[in-house]
Amino acid sequence: MATDLTISLHRAMYMAQAIRDAMGVFDDFATFSMEKKGDHYEVTIRDVDPEVDGDIVGEFSNFALAHTIERKRRTPK
After folding, report:
1. Which CATH number among 3.30.70, 1.10.1750, 3.30.450, 3.40.1010 corresponds to the domain 5-74?
2. Higher pLDDT, residue 77 or 67
3. Contacts for 66-70 with beta carbons within 8 Å, 24 or more apart?
4. What is the mean pLDDT of residues 11-37?
5. How many whole angstroms separate alpha carbon 43 and alpha carbon 36?
6. CA–CA distance from 71 to each of 12, 21, 23, 67 (Å)?
7. What digits encode the pLDDT tens for the residues 30-70?
């Protein structure tokens, strides 16, 4: 039985584009959707490939955070 996973990523720590980038990279492994809810981006992960070995939520979150940091470093102040 497939279970949807929902994670809440705080907007102060994650950029929407970095989350979308992560969704594109991980789309071979699951289906992703994102919605802005208050101070958070809510990401729903569905249809996780049964061959995925590991913590897709943790890997996805880490990837999105790393890309947020990279994007913020490239953005002029």
Report:
1. 3.30.70
2. 67
3. 67/15, 67/18, 67/21, 67/22, 68/13, 68/14, 68/15, 68/18, 70/18
4. 96
5. 9
6. 14, 11, 16, 6
7. 999 999 999 999 999 999 998 988 899 999 999 999 999 99
